[in-house]
User: Fold this.
Amino acid sequence: MSRIALSDLNAAGFDDFVAVLENVVEYSPWIAQEAAARRPFAGINQLHAALMAVIQSAAPDAQLALIRAHPDLANKTQRAAGLTAESTNEQNSAGLDRLSEAEYSAFERVNTAYREKFGFPYIVCVRRHTKDSVLRDFETRLRNIAKTETRRAIEEIGRIAALRLDQLVVADDKLKVHGRLSTHVLDNHVGKPAAGIAVELVELASLGESRVIARSVTNADGRTDQPLIGGRPLPIGRYELRFNVGKYYAERNVQLPDPPFLDEIPLRFAISEPEGHYHVPLLVTPWSYSTYRGS
Assistant:
């Protein structure tokens, strides 16, 4: 669906308003129907707050039905039967469509344990997570009581709704749903930014295969033209940045041993703030390197 201006959404007929927003919250058009009566909205944050207010004021049975409308994560049977386009894209963004057998088994185990304990599916905003962090979150939340998990589920539904709104509605204000990961390479050998260094960003995995999620080359300022991750939350997890510095110095006729002392430099780090800015620079010479979390 193409994006719509908030002003047009405010002016839309009731049915059109509901049609635009009915999948912002999974299989629950009644939320958009009740929110329609609260128009006009001054901004997208106010629209999101109105949707959440409808949920928070709903009867417990309605809240439980809302939670139960959501699919399990990485469930082969449910994927074969068909998820909403939104849920499919969200689960795929975390790699839940390409799990190893060990990962599928782990998800099946925690999904079953969670449903048996609470009587409803585990809900998490998967765009804020990697596969590993989802499994860790599962284990943590399994220790909660049902009342706590009902509250947590609604909080996560709110995060999912915010991201879906961000993709649907154009407004003057912005929802705080995006993070940014960037890098910068400084060649301390000559005291200048390092241009032309190939960079890979790898998402590390415990049970399955790690995967390259971004490739770039540093520009004249030693930075990448675009953030390594941007325009979305930063998935919680462990990462590795790989910098091809051996080729960079060889192309600049720096005298290096064969093989060079430093060829491909890996920097391992973790992300825990999905809406934050992580700047991971590399300060390098042919014989040394360092990093830090910048801003």
Notes: The chain is about 40% helix and 20% strand.
